[in-house]
Predict the 3D structure of the following.
Amino acid sequence: MARHPPGRRRNLPGHDGGKKVPRGPPDTCGMLTDVIELRRLSPDDWAIWRLLRLAALAEAPYAFSSQLADWQGGSDREDRWRERLSLPGSYNVVSLLDEDTVGMASGVPTTDEGVVELISMWVSPAARGRGFGDALVLEVERWARSVDAKVMRLDVADGNRSAARLYQRNGYGYTGEQGDLMADGVRRERVMAKRLEFPVEQRH
């Protein structure tokens, strides 16, 4: 789990200390005591994002087209991390358990009207199976609806079965399209998508 840098546990812009949300579906290992807190990050929170992203790339290199080396050494710069969190129209969120940041995800616009993409999704091994992944997916979907998106897409690495199960139980299906070539030069990402339904009270 990634610890907050000293002094970073504070109210983030627009979130008044973050939101606490119900846990994920009942099939998440039956652990019912966790409280999931979600916080939106701004570019000023680049150090939090950096800790999580480096942990993700180190722990699950099989899951991402980016590699740890791409963000180390001379590439590990504050301005680059700020730039990542400044992508136009993006929504960057982390999940917390007690004092630890245990998950991350982003929603970003695409060039297709009404279509957004879920990227940079990761949950710490210590928090898996406890609803954190579901909460992050649902939070990015909430953002997507707020910007009037009709479809959310994502790429999942071929063979990443645990991630595929997470997305499938949240209503995503394979489109038949292939995504980027993975760093091993063999596998490709597979595209999944979900048509977003709006809450009943918004269907007017």
